[in-house]
Specification:
single chain, 330 residues, alpha/beta, Rossmann fold, 47% helix, globular
Length: 330
């Protein structure tokens, strides 16, 4: 009798070339269906946008892919260098669209600072910050956001965010994703291209995107892939090694911030396995062994997955109509 391997990371293994071929076919078919000529990709210097760009190049060639580099004040210093490395590696045209001026004009930075000052009155010019969550694996208390601030002298402190301060911070930072998407659609319209979305399965399922911001796109070619699988495709497609080695980051706040401390319960390679287990009825005890956590911690992670699905369900919903619009049955 064949030995059945214990539940573990092998369940996420894929045949990369087969998967690339499947995605490429979808991309080509989509362009044919909508009569568009190519793809616009917003490049962040991260693995998801890099793999998306590589897949588009594989589908239609570099001459029909256009990249956008869109830094702003809070972008990490290496972001533009890494995003340019992608357009250089895969040899497609790209353009830098510095969005800080647009964000300034719309009040993004002012609104953000005003929201932070509700809990840190002295916050202002020369300060840096990020928002963080407590780890779900450590205890079962309510997870509430705090803001970590660093004053101009480099001194850091952490402050619990009130509801209105938290909502103000999120509303202000969401301008960044929405402004970038406006520019993506501008270039898509002038080139007769389609826009691409870059969420992986973990982000898409758990609502880690901004509605009508990075959540808006004509096609999302990696939304069915766990992040672990996206990294595997990145290596297979020749994404620059520095991007493959770069820790996941939101690149939204002025202080460096990992996705784990901002949103997810665990690092991506463990969250992938937890999400897979939730969807395939893997017992918590079996998942706990694979994650090297105790069962109560794993049960908290699984509850957090369910809670995020409930609270972000509206992000996936289309506009509500009073009645269906279109031809009748007759």
């Amino acid at each position: 009798m064949a030995h059945t391997p214990q539940f573990g990371h092998h369940v996420l293994d894929i045949d990369c070339e087969t998967e690339v071929a499947r995605i490429v076919t979808t991309l080509r078919d989509y362009l044919t269906d909508v009569r568009r000529k190519g793809f616009v990709v917003a490049l962040s210097g991260g693995i998801d946008s890099s793999v998306t760009a590589a897949l588009c190049v594989r589908a239609v060639g570099p001459e029909r892919v256009f990249g956008l580099h869109m830094p702003e004040r809070a972008s990490a210093p290496e972001t533009i260098r890494l995003s340019r490395a992608v357009s250089d590696t895969f040899a497609f045209d790209s353009e830098v669209e510095e969005i800080a001026g647009t964000l300034e004009a719309i009040g993004c930075y002012r609104r953000y600072d005003d929201a932070v000052r509700r809990v840190v009155p002295g916050y202002g010019a020369g300060w840096r910050s990020k928002i963080v969550l407590p780890s779900v694996t450590e205890d079962d208390t309510l997870r509430l956001y705090s803001i970590v601030v660093e004053d101009p002298d480099g001194q850091r402190s952490r402050h619990r965010l009130s509801v209105d301060a938290y909502l103000g911070v999120v509303a202000a930072t969401n301008f960044k994703q929405r402004v970038r998407k406006v520019l993506e659609y501008h270039h898509a319209d002038r080139l007769n291209y389609a826009t691409t979305g870059t969420p992986n399965l973990l982000e898409y399922d758990q609502g880690f995107f901004v509605k009508l911001g990075d959540g808006a796109a004509d096609v999302k070619p990696i939304a069915h892939l766990y992040k672990t699988q996206v990294y595997a495709l990145g290596e297979h497609l020749g994404v620059p090694a520095e991007i493959l080695d770069r820790p996941s980051t939101t690149d939204t706040y002025s202080l460096a911030q990992s996705q784990e401390e901002f949103y997810f319960s665990l690092p991506h390679h463990l969250m992938d396995l937890a999400l897979y287990a939730r969807d395939h009825d893997v017992p918590p005890a079996e998942l706990a062994q694979a994650l090297d956590l105790d069962v109560p911690a794993v049960e908290r992670v699984l509850r957090d997955i369910d809670q995020k699905r409930r609270s972000t369900r509206y992000l996936h919903q289309p506009p509500v109509l009073v009645e269906e619009i279109g031809p009748g049955d007759g």
